Amino acid sequence: MSVLLFLAPTSIFLGLIGLVAFFWTVKNGQYEDPDGDAARILNDHERDGPE
Amino acid sequence: MTSFDADLSGFLEKNRDDTTTLELMVRGARCAACLSKIEKTVAALPNVAASRFNLSTGKLTVRFDSARGDPAGVMRTVEDLGYVVGFYDPGAVRDEHDREGRRLILALGVAGFGAANAMMFTVPVWAGLFGQEMLPATRTVLYWFAAIVATPCTLYAGTPFFTSAWRSLRRGRANMDVPITIGVLLTLAISYYETFRGGAHAYFDAAVTLVFLLLIGRYLDHTLRARARGAASDLLALQTPVARRLDARGVERGVPVAKVAVGDLLAVASGERIPVDGRIETGVSTLDNALISGETLPVSVEPGAFVYAGALNLGGRLAVRAQACAEDSTLAEIGRLMEAGAQSKSAYVRLADRAAAIYVPTVHTVAALTFGLGWALGLGPHEALMRAAAVLIITCPCALGLAVPAVQVTASGRLFRAGVLVKSGAALERMAKIDHVVFDKTGVLTQGRPRLIDRPSDLLLCKAAPLARASRHPLARGLADAAGSGPVAQDAVETPGQGVEGVVDGRRARLGRACFVGVASEQPAETEFWFGFAGETKVRFRFADTVRADAAKTMDRLRAMGLGVEVLSGDVASAVAAVAGEAGIEHWRAGLTPLEKAQAVADLQDAGKRVLMVGDGLNDAAALAGADASMAPGAAIQASQNAADLVFEGEGLAAVPLAIEVARAARRRAQENFAFSALYNLVAAPMAVFGLVNPFVAAIAMSGSSLIVTLNALRMNLAGRAS
Q1: Are residues B552 and B655 in the same domain?
Q2: CB of B54 within 8 Å of any CB in chain A?
Q3: Final residue of a domain: which of B618, B645, B664?
């Protein structure tokens, strides 16, 4: 029982890290050009990421 | 095709650091190779600091490292690579839409996180472990954890529904978001109450899962509208890109049409369209008003004459004083009629809202009865309230919220692949009920541009073609189209509105109007060109606007679908009769003003018909807005594309029956989905009334029904692939 009090907040915290990462990807414009990102991986010498 | 010879620096956007940005729209790029080719070629141009191409939206962003960028050079380069290029629509509407989409994605992410993590705590409850290894105290602790996760997530992710419900209630109406909001908030409230009491009936996971599933439907609906709107404005961006503004010293400067102000002096060269309504300052010419009045015969204009946006300049160069800016560059009366038509369309009640009108009172009455009768029959107030709440929660319109958007997104996706853009889901619903189709003649039944119908010989066509390719005159273009690709005449010089002179096979030759070529024609017609080498016999080429190749076949198909067909045209009777005859249409009316066209559509509606209007010109805009549903070809003017529900690309008319078929299929799928949702509620509601619902049943039932509704919608795609 008492182990729950440690494990449950830990798992919520880990989930929150994922959520924050997701917010970052949206703000960073990573869903703006799904077709382009799928295509870019095939091109060589691609230096910069999404702007 | 756009002309890139003017100074286009008006299209550059200044950045804070001394650089400038140019946004272009590129069509035809589909693969990784295209993307890399475009970016690398453009980046190698002088002054270009960076270029980035978005393959999903077709937007090419070019950053110049100084204020002296060369937009024309970039556009020429991209076009030389084999793509179609235009200026990107800088409209604020699209940005607004992007923000809404981003907000929905975030909400979806939060709801997904909430649903997954709340379920982590409730799965042991579903599994029925209590009473065995775990005690009720543990269950309450798990519920509190679920509450901590689910409450903020539900409130954040549910905001789109809460605000929509509030707006609807303030207008005294109840849309589908009202029961959703009540259901979600009630679920949270009851769950808190139960958890405080240490009871078993907490549904935190259900509340946030419900919001998650509903947001999927909302997001699908949003992407549908965003995609159609973006594609439609891209079409327009390709069509009327540049106005040439003359400054005080008479220097030409290319500016976006949207930036033209009243009083600006604009130059319109031969073969260009008038960018905005205005009055002719200098120059004499003939104008092709086909897009505005539907007339195919050109009219002469001189200084002082009022000219409408969209008219094609066939003759000499004109200087036009702008009398209106791009947004209101339409006849005031047509604008007013369009507004009235748009209002009558917004009076259409969407399928989902009609379902809500039945659903909301029914469910709320059942819940109230459950509470009242339950208490009266001796259940006790607490148990009666719990059962009433269970009714509201389990019947919460999860499947109803997905029933229509899922179908409409698959339907419009199918149409999109066939080159038809659907502006809104409501348009598809109205389209499904059509029983009468009205066509405009010029530009809809016909190609809308002159084609060569009479040539002296193939040999002479080949001789004249090099000169034709050097000209932008519509008739010369028609000749060049007929001849196919080939060489361009050397040293070709064009006399605006008259013709072209150049060297073909080492000899001087002229192509153009009768007087220019040196023929004393008895009656010089605007639909013919003459050609001849210096000192030799001159020959005549005749042009006409030809009927689209698949017009007759399309009419047969429409009649086979049980639809009436009719032509309403602003052109003269003889021309309309000929086209109607060729397309096999019995009913036609000619010589109609824009007002009469709109009235004719209204008369048909009064006679109980549901009318689909297909038109492209300014004279059709009012009728398009007034009809039950409307379609416009991609070459139509802006006012018509704005008024139309669907815009179709391509050479043929096959898009019209296809759109109606898909709309009808979508309506059937949507009705099936509603029927399923009703059935589900008929089973689920009694279970809730008799107290048979526990959190596990609620979760399975709600997700299961949403899944079935979505899968049924996807069947539309299977049907499309098979045919």
Answers
A1: yes
A2: yes
A3: B664
Catalytic residue status for B440: yes
Task: Copy the structure tokens of residue B594.
Answer: 């824009």
Q: Indicate if the pLDDT at residue A25 is higher than 50.
A: yes
Is residue B293 domain-resident? Answer: yes
Contact B296, B575 (CB under 8 A): yes
- In this structure, the answer to whether residues B588 and B533 fall within a common structural domain is no
Domain boundary residue among B637, B664, B691?
A: B664
Task: Indicate which of B35, B41, B98, B223 best probes the interface with A, i.e. most A CBs within 10 Å of its own CB.
Answer: B35
The residue-averaged pLDDT of B221-244 equals: 65
Question: Pick from B609, B597, B602: which is nearest to B562 by CA?
Answer: B609
Query: Could you give the number of structural domains in chain B?
Result: 4
Domain containing B46: what range? Answer: 1-88
Q: Are residues B516 and B639 in the same domain?
A: no
Q: Domain for residue B406, yes or no?
A: no
Question: What is the nearest CA distance from A19 to chain B, expressed in angstroms?
Answer: 7
Please report the residues numbered 131 through 160 in chain B whose beta carbons come closer than 8 angstroms to any beta carbon of chain A. 138, 141-142, 145, 148-149
Cβ neighbours of residue B462 under 8 Å, at least 6 residues apart? B483, B486
ipTM of the complex: 0.81
At B319-368, the pLDDT tens digits run 888 877 655 554 444 555 555 555 555 556 677 777 777 777 888 888 88
- Determine which one of B177, B234, B277, B440 is catalytic: B440
Q: Is residue B464 part of a domain?
A: yes
Average pLDDT for B252-268: 79
**Cβ contact B626:B640 at 8 Å:** no
Whether B441 and B425 share a structural domain:
yes
- What is the per-residue pLDDT across B547-594, written as a single tens digit (0 to 9) for each? 888 889 999 999 999 999 999 988 888 888 888 988 888 899 988 877
Domain shared by B481 and B531, yes or no: yes
CA distance A35 to chain B (A): 5
Residues B526, B463, single domain; the answer is yes
Q: A24: buried, middle or exposed (CB in 10 Å: 19+, 13-18, 0-12)?
A: exposed
d(C-alpha B502, C-alpha B448), whole Å = 29
Q: SS3 of B586, please?
A: coil
Residues B441, B557, single domain; the answer is yes
Contact list, B32 vs chain A (CB under 8 Å): 39-43
CB B532 within 8 A of CB B518: yes
Query: Within this chain, do residues B605 and B540 fall inside the same structural domain, yes or no?
Result: no
Nearest CA in chain B to A21: B109
DSSP string, B482-525: HH-S----EEEEEETTTEEEEEETTEEEEEESHHHHT---SS--
CB atoms within 10 A of CB B553: 16
User: Given an 8 Å threshold on Cβ–Cβ distance, is B145 in contact with A12?
Assistant: yes
Residue in A11, A18, A33 nearest the CB of B54: A33
Comparing CB atoms, the residue among A4, A31, A42 nearest residue B141 is A4
Asked if residue B405 lies in contact with residue B213, where contact means CB atoms within 8 angstroms, the answer is: no
Task: Pull the structure tokens for residue B452.
Answer: 């060569």
